[in-house]
Automatic annotation (TrEMBL):
Top-level taxon of the source organism: Eukaryota
E.C. number(s) listed in UniProt: 1.1.1.49
Keyword set, alphabetical order: Carbohydrate metabolism, Glucose metabolism, NADP, Oxidoreductase
Subcellular location: Plastid, Chloroplast stroma
Function comment: Catalyzes the rate-limiting step of the oxidative pentose-phosphate pathway, which represents a route for the dissimilation of carbohydrates besides glycolysis. The main function of this enzyme is to provide reducing power (NADPH) and pentose phosphates for fatty acid and nucleic acid synthesis which are involved in membrane synthesis and cell division.
PANTHER family on file: GLUCOSE-6-PHOSPHATE 1-DEHYDROGENASE 2, CHLOROPLASTIC (PTHR23429:SF11), GLUCOSE-6-PHOSPHATE 1-DEHYDROGENASE G6PD (PTHR23429)
GO BP: any one term: glucose metabolic process
Membership in a protein family: Belongs to the glucose-6-phosphate dehydrogenase family.
Protein name: Glucose-6-phosphate 1-dehydrogenase
Length: 533
């Protein structure tokens, strides 16, 4: 039953959005029945993981589906089918999947029983990705499990992009639902540039409508990325400061402490800009910088993200630094260079590190540098957003009191991974008789504040796809705008054969990244003296 709400006189768009956000986040416990009513008409959901024998399926997709089942979020009538070229029986699939399933740390009761129940709903069909006959055989098996009910079907394409279209064509013509919905989740990469991305979209739309295509970027399903809108639009202290008047720069940082071990051949075809910056970091930037949407509806949010992407200044080569890790010995251990990978050409110029300065040419963000940095084989693993605020005008404590306040500006840190947290750095007085200032953290550490384990991003995104919620999936015009920003500079890097700056495995990255930041009077926040945030 709907709850009556007293009308609010002259409610502003941001107040309206805040009330919507609070309505979906105020409860500490997820109401499964209210949030998921797919059982109403006794319909079925058949989830087919195409590429079921691959690493992504084994490590992420099947565990996410089990977690949703364990939490009671999947419908009453559901079936999971694995589809791949490998020859495998149902029992062999279940054995393979069982090795990667775990229960929540906070919910271990009946874990074995739940696993057994879930695995009984998992089946396997071997077939070629370009065979309509094989998909027709799959369709026959799905119908047997659906038992004449309204059948909804979700296909997850966990396969290389060069066979996307063949699989979509066959699934659409031979295994789509006849009386319910059919949806297809497509994994990145969505092409290598504007032309290949547009060609992929055009081919997909020969067999699917835009509403059937769910382009997944798993970073959009991460808890702290989802929290961006809540943090901004439901806290009055932040939204008035969210502009060029108060924000000095924004940093989007992604680092891994391991190289491309095991996937060098794939990575060499794309590089760090295509692999991380053009999708993960740019999507976060768009969410961070967008204007207040009309509502939390998927189309309203995606409309605002597209406006941000279309407002971005063309990226210039001089605002990009690229690097590649080289061999390095530490503690008696020798770490390999990128080109030591046998699947990578010895003369490869593919960047494993990149930094870029981007600008949004609109009234809110004019002149504010958005600095991106992404790299592999660096000194630590982290993904975070750092918002550095401007100096206090006429600061009375700018001289003689310990901390150099020219450098110790207020900073908001949103750590996406690992150890999810939100920090706000403030200047305060050190206790004592003297007057000495210090930069301290007000922090929300998720592990300390919330006892419940944070769901994996794939759990959220799979549940959204089943429910038809598109807010965290990428629309075709978003994709076009993102590629339009990066394609010219990628082409220039490759045509001119720009040499990457080499950096030792396990270091903080190329020196050029520091010079790039210094050009805009910025210091990378993750390299400061305080490493706790």
């Amino acid at each position: 039953m709907a709850t009556k709400v007293s009308p609010v006189e002259k409610e502003t768009p941001i107040e309206k959005l805040k009330s919507e956000l609070l309505s979906v986040t105020s409860s500490n416990e997820w109401d499964e029945k209210a949030g998921f009513d797919i059982n109403e008409n006794e319909s079925t959901v058949s989830i087919t993981v195409v590429g079921a024998s691959g690493d992504l399926a084994k490590k992420k997709i099947f565990p996410a589906l089990f977690a949703l089942y364990y939490e009671g979020c999947l419908p009453k009538h559901f079936t999971v089918y694995g589809y791949a070229r490998s020859k495998m029986t149902d029992a062999e699939l279940r054995n393979m999947v069982s090795k990667t399933l775990t229960c929540r740390i906070d919910k271990r009761e009946n874990c074995g029983e739940k696993m057994e129940e879930f695995l009984k709903r998992c089946f396997y069909h071997s077939g070629q990705y370009d065979s309509e006959e094989n998909f027709a055989q799959l369709d026959k098996k799905l119908k047997e499990h659906e038992g004449g009910k309204v059948s909804n079907r979700l296909f997850y394409l966990s396969i290389p992009p060069n066979i996307f279209i063949d699989a979509v064509k066959c699934a659409s013509s031979s295994a789509s639902s006849g009386n319910g919905w059919t949806r297809v989740i497509v994994e990145k990469p969505f092409g290598r540039d504007s032309d290949s991305s547009a060609a992929l979209t055009k081919s997909l739309k020969q067999y699917l409508t835009e509403d059937q295509i769910f382009r997944i970027d798993h970073y959009l399903g991460k808890e702290l990325v989802e929290n961006l809108s809540v943090l901004r639009f439901s806290n009055l202290i932040f939204e008035p400061l969210w502009s060029r008047q108060y924000i000095r720069n924004v940093q989007l940082i992604f680092s891994e402490d391991f190289g491309t071990e095991g996937r060098g051949g794939y990575f060499d075809h794309y590089g760090i800009i295509r692999d991380i910056m053009q999708n993960h970091l740019l999507q976060i930037l768009a969410l961070f910088a967008m204007e207040t949407p009309v509502s939390l509806d998927a189309e309203d949010i995606r409309n605002e993200k597209v406006k941000v992407l279309r407002s971005m200044r063309p990226l210039q080569l001089e605002d990009v630094v690229i690097g590649q890790y080289k061999s390095h010995s530490k503690g008696g251990v020798t770490y390999p260079a990128y080109t030591d990978d046998k699947t990578v050409p010895k003369d490869s110029l593919t960047p494993t590190f990149a930094a870029a300065a981007l600008f949004i040419d609109n009234a809110r963000w004019d002149g504010v540098p958005f600095l991106m940095k992404a790299g592999k084989a660096l000194h630590n693993k982290r993904a975070e957003i750092r918002v550095q605020f401007r100096h206090v005008p006429g600061n009375l404590y700018n001289r003689n009191f310990g901390t150099d306040l020219d450098q110790a500006t207020n900073e908001l840190v949103i750590r996406v991974q690992p150890d999810e947290a939100i920090y706000l750095k403030i200047n305060n007085k050190v206790p004592g008789l003297g007057m000495r200032l210090d930069c301290s953290n007000l922090n929300l550490h998720y592990a300390a504040r919330y006892s419940k384990e944070i769901p994996d991003a794939y759990e959220r995104l799979l549940l959204d796809a089943i429910e038809g919620e598109r807010r965290l999936f990428i629309r075709s015009d978003e994709l076009d705008a993102a590629w339009s920003l990066f394609t010219p500079v990628l082409a220039e890097l490759e045509e001119k054969k720009i040499m990457p700056e080499y950096y030792p495995y396990g270091s903080r990255g190329p020196v050029g990244a520091h010079y790039l930041a210094a050009r805009y009077n910025v210091r990378w926040g993750d390299l400061g003296l305080d490493q706790s945030a």
